[in-house]
Give the backbone structure.
Amino acid sequence: MKRYTFISAAGATLGALAGAEWYLRQRDHVNNRDRWFHEGYDGSHPYNVFHNRSGWELMPGYNVAGIRINQYGFRGDDISKRKDPNVVRIMCLGDSCTFGTSGDESPYPYQLKQRLDTMDLEADYQTINAGVEGHATINALLRLPRLLTFHPDVLIIYLGWNDMWIGNPKHYPDMRRKTQSYWHYGNGAQTGLRLIDSAKDGLGLDAPPPIGSFDIDVFIPTNFEFNMERIIRTARKAGVQVVLTTLPTLIPQHNGQPSLLCLEKLHYPAFFAQGDLERIKELHEIYDTSIRQLAMREDVELIDLNAAFSDQDTKGDTYFSNTWLPSVEGNQIIARALADGLYEREIVR
């Protein structure tokens, strides 16, 4: 009798714990959704929808005002989740620079596909636009497991601007830790069990990350590098060939007076004074250098998109809409540089 009583009590305890975990997960989902709709989201991009893991993603099936999103939440044409074995699938992971502006022909993944189609290549190539406006490396990292279910052969990673915009060197928290979701990023090491995480939080055991302060000449974007390393290693473990890109920009790369229109288009992070061109140049070079060093450390290919614009300073206001966002003409240069770079490295043939 005692044995059955023990089994019943154990079963009831496990059931209660499972029920509590389920309740806390549902509450967590609702709290994050409310935070998205009432605190963090201004409704300016109606095709962005709440996602409890990665923060926000694209609304499948949206097709309004030159923004067309397919059935799987990627910008562009409908695709089959099962990859054709005779097609090489290139996935383009990024932010607004990958997502593009209004119009099907705007994004560089579309332009890249058009460029590859004009080349005398042995294989057929498909590009997938996996860009989401506003995403930083942490959002991309949390999306990656789902993206890999589409079995890309090549992953082009064009990320960094949103990390740059939120990464104030003078107030730089150490976020180098695994996290279960975007909403818990920086809140300490998450266990994956809300019961344990809630108990740690209630007992004050989940300490906030330490904050560092760095002069820009010694600043290293460690959070950005940590997330990028995990993205690269996760993709390579899945058998995907990774290609990094530097960050092309409207910021003038040479000494000389930029045009008035260029100066008007330039945006600055909130932690810099408006018009502080030298400091934003320094910060951009820090991230570009980090990307180059990541490519060397992780032994992956790098295509220097910034170099593709090195002789275009006088036309920068044509090729960019603001500090980071390429125009359609800018994306044509990016697509050409990528197609040529992929071919030279024998990634496409």
